[in-house]
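JOB MANIFEST
job_type = single_chain_structure
chain_count = 1
residues = 118
[input]
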Amino acid sequence: MTAEGQSYGGYAGHEVNSKDDEGTYVHVLRDGSEAPDVEGFGDQEDAAEFVADYVDDGEIVLDDNQAIYLFELSHSTEGSGADFQDAVVLVSLETESSAITVDENGEGESVILCPAEA
């Protein structure tokens, strides 16, 4: 997944890739991860505010098929400007069994329904 910041205040936009930049410009939170403890820059919200609905007792609570990506789109991860809430993305991957079902239509032929219908 790629996120790109807009140019602002004389700074050029910065592109961040979740695979190449994980651990530097991207933090990935999974079930059991510690909730982020990074203050927002200036008058912006802290990263914790963006994920508050997924926190219990200081830990991230997600399903096994979910992850939260915190992107820092500035050109540096040093200093107070690096608040890791420039883009916050919840990813939920569908499992094969929940995404596809096979049913028979009125003519006895198999029909794939996606997403799965109950």
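[summary]
The longest helix spans residues 47-51.
The chain has a mean pLDDT of 79.
exit_status = 0
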